[in-house]
């Protein structure tokens, strides 16, 4: 995965080729530097608090340990953030992903419960397929409102954000639906090759997205639309199709996340499933270095961002702070990242055109 | 019903006197929708048109009315505030905790309002001076307020203070044997004050100017910074006040209070005819918007056959209709 | 209009004898402003007298708006002095300039459409009563100001409900209400029709009588001659001349604005050898028009020819190009591509029909700043292939490499970010973007504006070469020498329509200048020689 993604990402970002100590220079210039550093700092804090934090042991062919748990727990946020990255790259935003996740979980669970053979693997696969198909429809709906009707993304997706949980409850009839299907629950708690299946699914999606965006022209066109919509239009880019595609993709990712969350508890509560996951996902994207103003995106950055958020959630109880304080830390992270990315805050450190205005006012 | 419209109708007339009626169209549409829904309810269910049902509508939604007032300011100025639900929770928690610690109820109230206003101001400063998008800055506020609430207490804290419970339960008897509570009076007074500020003060008109065209407002020499920070401070204050009303309503402080209430507030404002892109709308519209949301709920509670989730779906559909109509309207303009 | 243009040029630095009495309200002396490495203003001076309409003239990039912004405190000046009523000043903010009586009305109405006319005029200094706004008092005061200007507008109506022209007048009313001594009107007429302009001029005359100094920027020469008393002409950030309008013919004015360096008219090796107007045109526009931007225009393009479009800013040159490319849609008229009738609903349609268009606004409509040079080059071709069919890496590398070399793009690094390139190199990348799509018609709108001489020559040479190889090129430029050097045919535009079309055999720069200066418009605007030639 690293092999397929790193060269184009890193190569494209470093504008001038440095011949000397290339690796070091490249690492220092990488936009991934800060997110990775933050993640490392977090891990170090954990190790200081609990020296055995990073220990991983093999038992019954499965890996166990904090790191494995973090990987497993990160899957839903990672998936949602993946879709969100592309949406944000087109200057959009999708607030409805939490509601979509709830709908997907609700559909999958009710399909399994309603099936003739509740425990069969085929039932689980069919149910998940139906759930994801419905997510495609929801994504088409969002994309329609944004690209055809021309409603601002934040407003367009607010509609589904508000109505979505109602729809999910309509599906589950307001009940907390519990399912009993091994294949389904394996999606969240199963292991393949010693690694959590949920994490592997998320990583596979990242890899597929990486190939789709960087091995085809999709990534470049998404970025072009996000950076300069008018210039893209004049260059003949079909921005409507592009925008529609990213909303559908975002919805599918959210659906997959919803199914995994439901599988984790073997049940679905339409009220709480995926609550605030859209905010976590947006945070992951922003931490990963993709600007909310659209344009250049970094899938690897988003991966790091999602891991950071999950690790943070793990760190807080680990260093002896009540886990509810997680929100406080998230708030601080949001503010810190925004200030780092804010051109105004950066301008304080840089000489800009406006600076001389103030200075020249005095002598005259 | 007369109790509500009487004080506000004078403001209505004043506003009307210097604005063409076309600008009221969205509010009128919402009002018609509200009357239609209420009428339909009356035809369908016994006792729906009883004035006490309407008074209960105000009573059950007094906190939301106050939140919607603050949100109207923010949205009129072209922003959005996602933090209000969390600030409501924080406010209930601060009130419950301080009262449990034996503080004077008045000191407790002042503390809540000051903290909420400060939080709002802080977000406004981030938004204006560091050019952070309102969405993301208030997202930080959402996390911060929720986190602070958890920090105070994870468990629900009951409110047993004498003054609070008296304020919560004391009713005002109206002619005809109907009654209402002080919370309704506070909510309606908030609407009246806000309507005056928006219509008749320089600050209020600058809110419209900033929402209409921020760059122009700046070139016209208006105090854009004061307004941009000010609307978030007002929204914070309203969230604090709404939180106090919510604390009176539930007589408890709890970190899981008001989850997602910001969405209800935004929906009420939009359904009330305020343009989400800013610059157009009235605080009275937001009041009617809240009443429409409340009526949907009343409808569903009167109808045994409809499940509660239809509320959310109905709100979503209404939101969609209003957003699409707004889009069509703004597209037609030059 | 007189035609006595034999008088020696009068420059601003030498005092003009026998002019209007009175001290200048504003005197800007030797103002220089530098942005990065670009000298936007180079020792420019401007004097404004009370009770005059002073036209500020110049093409794109001449420095008009920079000068205005220097005066109104939007930009700070690097050197030079601004004297207001005998005192030296430098305004740090627009508000400070306003306080000193300098008000500006911009091309885009800078008011708030959702408030009332009265609020737009008075917000920030509205009359108050008991802490609240005194609405009645505000409306009354607005009504008084409007009456003074002879405007019949209801102060309590919503601004956005009025046409742009009325909004523009309200903007002026706001400016006047501040007791403005200096009123700057930056292209206020660009979207107004004749009646509306007449109304505006009436207001301007009233203000002039009241002793207000008005700076007037307009691209319509007739308007200048109708309303302005004096003018300052800028070119490439330098002061050309200050003149009395009555003493300057339109021909002289256009010459001063565009500038001509007669000595350097060495033609390229392009020999204007295109022969076949016999075959069907590759692109033919019949009565193409769009409300507010272009009046019905015909144009035919043949294989292997360069058609130059000459005209001042606002003449319809850019608008024509955009309609030919489908960037805007035409209200009337039709397009024929290789004799079959087509409707271009979007740039996509045009690109599919082998038409390419490079916009004059490089930054907003061409450059994708955060993408690499390679991505920028491949964008149009990739867009037409769709995202599912990426251009193979080898082909991509070959094409990018070829064009970097052929157009001498620097740095010669395909991975460099577009925004880090100089304007000239960006322009070359954009040219490459379109050449890679192998178009049959290439529309270039001011491809050489604001770029250095070297890049300019390279782009010109490339255009000549493309035409030799059979491509049909529409070349739009404000520089007439350039147009004449490259074109087989010259189309001259003015006042949003085509006013002349000449084969480029013995056309000279002065011929074109005369056509631009004299043709069309109101009879009063015509010079005598132009009338007699008709």
UniProtKB/TrEMBL annotation, chain A:
Protein name: ABC transporter permease
Listed InterPro entries: ABC_transp_permease
Key words of the record: Cell membrane, Membrane, Transmembrane, Transmembrane helix
Topology term for the membrane: Multi-pass membrane protein
Keyword Transmembrane helix: yes
Subcellular location: Cell membrane
Transmembrane intervals: 32-50, 70-88, 95-114, 120-141, 153-171, 191-212, 242-263, 275-292, 299-321
TrEMBL record, chain B:
Domain of life from the UniProt record: Bacteria
Compartments where located: Cell membrane
Keywords carried by this UniProt record: Cell membrane, Membrane, Transmembrane, Transmembrane helix
Record's keyword annotation contains Transmembrane helix: yes
Chain segments annotated as transmembrane: 24-43, 63-94, 106-127, 139-159, 179-199, 229-249, 255-276, 283-302, 308-325
One of the Pfam families matching this protein, by short name: BPD_transp_2
Coarse class of the protein's main subcellular location: membrane
UniProt membrane topology term: Multi-pass membrane protein
Keyword presence, Transmembrane: yes
InterPro entries, sorted: ABC_transp_permease (IPR001851)
NCBIfam families assigned: PRK11618.1
PANTHER family in alphabetical order: ABC TRANSPORTER PERMEASE PROTEIN YPHD-RELATED-RELATED, INNER MEMBRANE ABC TRANSPORTER PERMEASE PROTEIN YJFF
Descriptive protein name: Galactofuranose ABC transporter, permease protein YjfF
Organism: Nocardioides vastitatis
Classification of source organism: Bacteria, Bacillati, Actinomycetota, Actinomycetes, Propionibacteriales
UniProtKB/TrEMBL annotation, chain C:
Keywords for the protein's UniProt record, in alphabetical order: ATP-binding, Nucleotide-binding, Repeat, Transport
Domain ABC transporter: 26-261, 277-520
Region spans: Disordered: 1-22
Cross-referenced CDD domains: ABC_Carb_Monos_I, ABC_Carb_Monos_II
The keyword Repeat is assigned to this record: yes
GO molecular function: ATP binding
InterPro entries according to UniProt: AAA+_ATPase, ABC_carbohydrate_import_ATPase, ABC_transporter-like_ATP-bd, ABC_transporter-like_CS, P-loop_NTPase
Listed name of the protein: Sugar ABC transporter ATP-binding protein
